[in-house]
Design a protein that fits this description.
The chain is 0% helix and 58% strand. It is mostly beta strands and 195 residues long. The protein has one domain: Jelly Rolls, CATH 2.60.120.200. A 7-stranded antiparallel beta sheet has the order 1-5-14-7-8-9-10, with no helix packed on it. The two termini are 17 Å apart. The relative contact order is 0.29.
Length: 195
Protein backbone atom coordinates (compact mmCIF):
# COMPACT_ATOMS: atom_id res chain seq x y z
CA UNK A 1 0.00 0.00 0.00
CA UNK A 2 2.79 2.45 0.86
CA UNK A 3 4.20 2.16 -2.70
CA UNK A 4 1.09 3.96 -4.03
CA UNK A 5 1.95 6.93 -1.83
CA UNK A 6 4.43 9.75 -1.99
CA UNK A 7 5.31 12.42 0.52
CA UNK A 8 6.17 16.07 0.67
CA UNK A 9 7.88 17.76 3.65
CA UNK A 10 7.85 14.49 5.64
CA UNK A 11 10.91 14.13 7.92
CA UNK A 12 10.63 10.33 8.24
CA UNK A 13 9.90 7.34 6.02
CA UNK A 14 6.34 6.78 4.85
CA UNK A 15 4.86 4.42 7.46
CA UNK A 16 2.71 1.36 6.80
CA UNK A 17 -0.66 3.02 6.11
CA UNK A 18 -2.72 -0.18 6.23
CA UNK A 19 -3.29 0.11 10.00
CA UNK A 20 -2.64 2.76 12.64
CA UNK A 21 0.27 5.10 11.81
CA UNK A 22 1.80 8.42 12.89
CA UNK A 23 3.06 11.56 11.21
CA UNK A 24 5.68 13.43 13.23
CA UNK A 25 5.64 17.10 12.41
CA UNK A 26 8.29 19.69 13.35
CA UNK A 27 7.36 23.19 14.55
CA UNK A 28 7.11 25.98 11.99
CA UNK A 29 5.01 23.98 9.50
CA UNK A 30 1.64 24.92 8.03
CA UNK A 31 -0.66 24.93 5.01
CA UNK A 32 -2.27 28.39 4.96
CA UNK A 33 -2.78 31.41 2.68
CA UNK A 34 -3.92 34.79 3.99
CA UNK A 35 -3.82 38.22 2.33
CA UNK A 36 -1.79 40.16 1.71
CA UNK A 37 1.35 37.99 1.76
CA UNK A 38 1.07 34.85 3.91
CA UNK A 39 1.73 31.71 1.85
CA UNK A 40 2.68 28.72 4.04
CA UNK A 41 3.06 25.41 2.21
CA UNK A 42 5.49 23.28 4.22
CA UNK A 43 3.17 20.89 6.10
CA UNK A 44 4.07 17.19 5.88
CA UNK A 45 1.61 15.35 3.61
CA UNK A 46 1.50 11.68 2.60
CA UNK A 47 -0.52 11.46 -0.61
CA UNK A 48 -1.77 9.47 -3.57
CA UNK A 49 -1.78 11.27 -6.90
CA UNK A 50 -5.04 10.78 -8.81
CA UNK A 51 -7.25 12.72 -11.21
CA UNK A 52 -10.36 14.59 -10.12
CA UNK A 53 -12.68 12.23 -12.01
CA UNK A 54 -11.04 9.16 -10.40
CA UNK A 55 -11.49 10.47 -6.85
CA UNK A 56 -14.57 9.12 -5.05
CA UNK A 57 -13.87 9.62 -1.34
CA UNK A 58 -11.28 9.60 1.43
CA UNK A 59 -11.72 8.90 5.12
CA UNK A 60 -9.45 8.78 8.19
CA UNK A 61 -9.62 9.00 11.98
CA UNK A 62 -7.16 11.48 13.50
CA UNK A 63 -6.11 12.17 17.10
CA UNK A 64 -3.14 13.56 19.03
CA UNK A 65 -2.10 15.15 22.30
CA UNK A 66 -3.08 18.59 21.03
CA UNK A 67 -1.63 21.34 23.20
CA UNK A 68 -0.25 24.29 21.24
CA UNK A 69 -2.19 26.89 19.26
CA UNK A 70 -2.93 25.72 15.70
CA UNK A 71 -1.59 22.15 16.19
CA UNK A 72 -3.45 20.25 13.46
CA UNK A 73 -3.83 17.06 11.47
CA UNK A 74 -6.30 15.31 9.21
CA UNK A 75 -6.98 14.85 5.49
CA UNK A 76 -5.59 17.10 2.79
CA UNK A 77 -6.68 17.34 -0.85
CA UNK A 78 -4.32 19.38 -3.05
CA UNK A 79 -5.64 20.36 -6.49
CA UNK A 80 -2.83 21.04 -8.94
CA UNK A 81 -4.22 22.86 -11.97
CA UNK A 82 -2.28 24.86 -14.55
CA UNK A 83 -3.48 28.24 -13.28
CA UNK A 84 -3.09 27.74 -9.50
CA UNK A 85 -2.83 25.33 -6.61
CA UNK A 86 -5.98 24.98 -4.56
CA UNK A 87 -6.47 22.75 -1.54
CA UNK A 88 -8.88 21.59 1.14
CA UNK A 89 -7.76 20.36 4.56
CA UNK A 90 -10.02 18.97 7.27
CA UNK A 91 -9.36 17.42 10.65
CA UNK A 92 -8.55 18.62 14.16
CA UNK A 93 -7.03 22.00 15.03
CA UNK A 94 -6.17 23.26 18.52
CA UNK A 95 -7.73 26.72 19.01
CA UNK A 96 -8.94 28.62 22.10
CA UNK A 97 -7.45 26.02 24.43
CA UNK A 98 -9.15 22.94 22.97
CA UNK A 99 -9.19 20.69 19.90
CA UNK A 100 -11.85 21.56 17.32
CA UNK A 101 -12.97 20.10 14.01
CA UNK A 102 -11.49 22.37 11.36
CA UNK A 103 -12.02 22.77 7.62
CA UNK A 104 -10.05 25.11 5.38
CA UNK A 105 -10.80 25.49 1.67
CA UNK A 106 -8.29 27.49 -0.37
CA UNK A 107 -9.19 28.83 -3.79
CA UNK A 108 -7.46 32.19 -4.07
CA UNK A 109 -7.11 32.55 -0.28
CA UNK A 110 -7.96 30.31 2.68
CA UNK A 111 -11.46 30.17 4.22
CA UNK A 112 -11.48 28.59 7.69
CA UNK A 113 -14.27 27.16 9.83
CA UNK A 114 -14.34 25.44 13.23
CA UNK A 115 -16.86 23.40 15.20
CA UNK A 116 -16.60 21.56 18.53
CA UNK A 117 -15.71 17.88 18.63
CA UNK A 118 -18.55 15.40 19.01
CA UNK A 119 -19.34 14.57 22.64
CA UNK A 120 -17.97 11.03 22.18
CA UNK A 121 -14.37 12.32 21.82
CA UNK A 122 -11.95 14.63 23.60
CA UNK A 123 -9.06 14.48 21.13
CA UNK A 124 -10.09 12.96 17.79
CA UNK A 125 -12.50 12.77 14.89
CA UNK A 126 -13.25 10.80 11.76
CA UNK A 127 -13.27 12.97 8.65
CA UNK A 128 -14.50 12.12 5.16
CA UNK A 129 -14.15 13.97 1.85
CA UNK A 130 -16.51 12.98 -0.95
CA UNK A 131 -16.70 13.79 -4.65
CA UNK A 132 -20.49 14.12 -4.59
CA UNK A 133 -22.88 13.38 -7.44
CA UNK A 134 -24.05 17.04 -7.41
CA UNK A 135 -20.57 18.14 -8.58
CA UNK A 136 -19.41 19.56 -5.24
CA UNK A 137 -16.75 18.28 -2.89
CA UNK A 138 -18.36 17.55 0.49
CA UNK A 139 -16.50 17.35 3.80
CA UNK A 140 -18.16 15.28 6.55
CA UNK A 141 -17.62 14.59 10.24
CA UNK A 142 -18.51 10.98 11.11
CA UNK A 143 -19.64 9.88 14.57
CA UNK A 144 -22.60 9.02 16.78
CA UNK A 145 -23.71 6.77 13.91
CA UNK A 146 -24.24 9.86 11.73
CA UNK A 147 -22.62 11.93 9.00
CA UNK A 148 -22.47 15.65 9.83
CA UNK A 149 -21.92 18.08 6.92
CA UNK A 150 -18.99 20.43 7.53
CA UNK A 151 -18.38 22.10 4.18
CA UNK A 152 -19.58 22.08 0.59
CA UNK A 153 -16.78 23.18 -1.76
CA UNK A 154 -18.63 24.33 -4.87
CA UNK A 155 -15.62 25.42 -6.97
CA UNK A 156 -14.64 21.72 -7.10
CA UNK A 157 -17.32 21.23 -9.78
CA UNK A 158 -15.63 23.77 -12.06
CA UNK A 159 -12.35 21.83 -12.25
CA UNK A 160 -11.44 19.80 -15.33
CA UNK A 161 -11.95 16.05 -14.89
CA UNK A 162 -8.28 15.34 -15.62
CA UNK A 163 -6.97 17.79 -13.00
CA UNK A 164 -4.24 16.22 -10.85
CA UNK A 165 -5.12 15.83 -7.17
CA UNK A 166 -3.10 14.72 -4.17
CA UNK A 167 -5.13 13.13 -1.38
CA UNK A 168 -3.93 11.85 1.98
CA UNK A 169 -3.15 12.58 5.64
CA UNK A 170 -1.28 15.68 6.80
CA UNK A 171 -0.03 17.30 10.00
CA UNK A 172 1.09 20.84 10.81
CA UNK A 173 2.47 22.75 13.77
CA UNK A 174 2.66 26.48 12.99
CA UNK A 175 4.16 27.21 16.46
CA UNK A 176 3.24 30.92 16.48
CA UNK A 177 4.74 31.40 19.95
CA UNK A 178 8.05 29.70 19.19
CA UNK A 179 7.14 26.23 20.50
CA UNK A 180 10.01 23.78 19.96
CA UNK A 181 8.49 20.30 20.38
CA UNK A 182 7.39 18.10 17.47
CA UNK A 183 3.71 17.20 17.09
CA UNK A 184 2.93 13.50 16.67
CA UNK A 185 -0.45 12.93 15.01
CA UNK A 186 -2.04 9.47 15.12
CA UNK A 187 -4.12 8.16 12.20
CA UNK A 188 -6.11 5.01 11.62
CA UNK A 189 -8.59 3.65 9.11
CA UNK A 190 -7.22 5.54 6.10
CA UNK A 191 -9.43 4.67 3.13
CA UNK A 192 -9.13 6.35 -0.27
CA UNK A 193 -11.65 5.18 -2.86
CA UNK A 194 -11.15 5.73 -6.58
CA UNK A 195 -13.00 4.65 -9.70
Amino acid sequence: MASEYREIHLKHAIPDLSGAFDITCPPGTDLWDKPPWTHSKNAPIIYRSITKDAFKSAKVTVRASWKDLYDQGGLCLVIRSSDSTRWVKAGIEFVNGSPNVSVVAKDRWSDWSLRPLLSESTDGATIEMENASDGSLWVWLLGDGQRYPLREVTWWGDLEKTTECWIGPFAAKPAPHGEKNDLVVHFQGLLIQTS
